[in-house]
Fold this sequence. Notes:
Helix 3 (69-82) crosses helix 5 (110-130) and helix 5 packs parallel to helix 6. The protein has 343 residues and is an alpha/beta fold. It has an 8-stranded parallel barrel, surrounded by 5 helices. Helices cover 44% and strands 15% of the residues. The protein has one domain: Luciferase-like domain (TIM Barrel).
Amino acid sequence: MSPFKVDVVLPPGVEPARQAAKTFEATGYDGLYTVETTNDPFLDLAFPALETTKPMLGNNLAIAFARSPYVTAVLAWNLQQASKGRYCLGLGTQVKGHIERRFGMSWDSPGPKFREYVACLKELWSAWQERRPAAHRGKFYNSTVNNPFFTPGPISYPAPKVFIAAINEYNAETVGFNADGILIHPLHSPKYIDDVLMPAINKGLAKSGRTRDDITIVCPIFLAVGDTDEQAASAASFVKQQAAFYGSTRSYRRIFETHGWDETPPRLHERMSKGDMAGMPSEITDEMVEVFAITGRTDDAVDEIKRRYEGRADRIYFYNAFATPFADEGRQRELIASLSSSS
């Protein structure tokens, strides 16, 4: 039996997410995620929380620094109650430019601030559940106002788990230190997980007195597969575009450097700075696609997914499945049946 839970991302928007959630639950997915792009990732989960019964529901992800810990804590608390305990809060930091110039918020010591953010959330939830005053006093956040008029009471379920995005070692250590899981970035490789992320996670686990079994590893998967060479090439072209887009940001440089491709991120950044979006994918080689994605024939994908992710991931989802032959509902069901630990 394969160890994976197989999840899927909902389309953005209240009504599209509502309809897709019902369809995906019927298809057999183990978890449903919302993203923070053009719509609110919490609002999009409101109907799925009420109208589905089995899948885990989560944000993958919501931007922590766009909201105070208190605001996020209330949203997550409400969704956990509405979903009858199926909700997991997924958080990321985003990058400085977006926090300052899109959300209009401040950017300061993101790693330590993110770690404290998680601690503040958990203190608030513990206080609400235990009907006691909250008392978080930190370097970045304080939450000590306990007027009953503004304080949520207990809910019927345990506090939500907190999964956080981590690319660098500090945030990966935070996963082990005080979070409940990691949302691995779509641009990754098994080597990056093994050599960079897991040693940092284990360091955090040692500090918190926990073990690997206490956290959940969520892995998105790029698919560059097809029933024909043409379909596979089209999917690979998409992967090159996405890898180029992510690789142009300095935050993702370490992923390339892990494989000795140190010069690729600077070249991508230069092309991005010059507005040469069309030329960026040419910097991503076929070898890189093979490292970052599942490649080849559709029928061989399951074996390759198992080879790469068994022992590394607890939950998986597919970044671009609906642009491959897996868009067919019947093949989705077969894929889930072949991979899901609940099958």
